[in-house]
Amino acid sequence: MPPPSMPPAPAASAVNALMQELPARVLHRDRELIILDKPAGLAVHPGPSGGLSLEAALDALRFEMRTAPSLAHRLDRDTSGCLVLARRRSALRRLNALFAAGEIEKTYWAVVVGSPKAASGVVELALRKLNRKDGWKMVADPSGQSAVTRWRLLGQGDGMSWLECKPQTGRTHQVRVHCAALGCPILGDPVYGAPGKEPHRSDRPLHLHARAVSIPYVERAPPVTAAAPVPAHMRAALVACGWRDEGGRS
User: Fold this and answer.
1) 181 contact partners, CB below 8 Å, separation of at least 6
2) What is the pLDDT of residue 154?
3) Could you say which DSSP state residue 195 is in?
4) Which site among 18, 159, 162, 234 is 20 to 30 Å from 187 CA-CA?
5) Residue range 62-78: mean pLDDT, rounded
6) What count of other Cβ atoms lies within 10 Å of the Cβ of residue 191?
7) Phi and psi, residue 127, nearest 5°
8) For residue 63, which of 109, 22, 110 has the smallest C-alpha distance?
9) How confident is the model at residue 137 (pLDDT cuts 50, 70, 90)?
């Protein structure tokens, strides 16, 4: 039997362009770790069909180190914002332990369709992966992995709501599934959303942003923190919900 074919490698020009862009997207850098503002639409790992991924361009983030940093966790392709990278093997082990223990605080901003029934709350809904002929998705299942998300309402307008979500666990697609379970799917979500019910066009990008991260990396020392600026594709919807940008403009 012939070996399975390898996915095509991304074009060198695309990789070079990404490598030129990445250093300017660094939110925090020290000798142990990097926090990167990942753009929406960029996968962190190459998919089965190939294409450009962050892993192909990590060498641009070596700076003074001999080797490229490693991914300490992941974000979905269409989610923007704070992504943590380890610059040393010891740092990767430390970060993996902190993520596994739930000690790293992750804050997401989501623009959702409709309005939740309360101003804040907690979603506790176990999840498992469902494989289908047309792809896979995460579904609620009591026998699945525990998943907990704390959320609060930050603003509303034009048939949409702006939510702050703090996942207490790190399941795949957790925030997306839990927002849908609130009856408020994330704007532009092609898997868990309701495109026909969106108040505007339904071909917009996913409106989910990893806004901030706080890492208690060194015991008895202040945590390492970073906040990622709002991506361009989410600005109009957030303004409609009452957000004012970092310069105070609406």
Assistant:
1) 123, 125, 140
2) 98
3) G
4) 18
5) 97
6) 17
7) -130, 150
8) 22
9) very high
C-alpha–C-alpha distance, residues 105 and 48, integer Å = 31
> What's the DSSP call for residue 20?
H
**Its pTM surpasses 0.90:** yes
Here the tokens at position 162 are 């702006």
β-pairing verdict for 105-113 and 160-167: antiparallel
Question: What is the rounded CA–CA span in Å between residue 6 and residue 4?
Answer: 6
Nearest to 219 by CA among 100, 98, 99, 107: 98
Name which of 99, 29, 95, 93 is nearest 60 in CA terms. 29
In the block, tokens 């919900």 appear at 241
Q: Encoding tokens for residue 122?
A: 């907690």
Q: Of the candidates 162, 164, 168, which has an alpha carbon nearest to the alpha carbon of residue 149?
A: 168
Q: Which of these, 19, 21, 82, lies nearest to 208 by C-alpha position?
A: 82
Q: Under a CB-based contact definition with an 8 Å cutoff, are residues 98 and 216 in contact?
A: yes
CA dihedral 189, 194, 196, 198 (to 10 degrees): -70
- Give the residue carrying structure tokens 């069909």: 49
Residue in the block written with tokens 């990445």? 22
Catalytic residue IDs: 76
Neighbouring C-alpha atoms within 13 Å toward the C-beta of 120: 5
Question: 235 in helix, strand or coil?
Answer: helix
Letter for the amino acid at 50? G
Q: Which two tokens stand for residue 140?
A: 């609620």
List helix spans (H) across 101-210.
174-181
What pairs with residue 122 in β-bridges? Answer: 150
The per-residue pLDDT for range 149-200, each reduced to its tens digit, is: 999 999 999 999 999 999 999 999 999 999 999 999 999 999 998 655 555 4
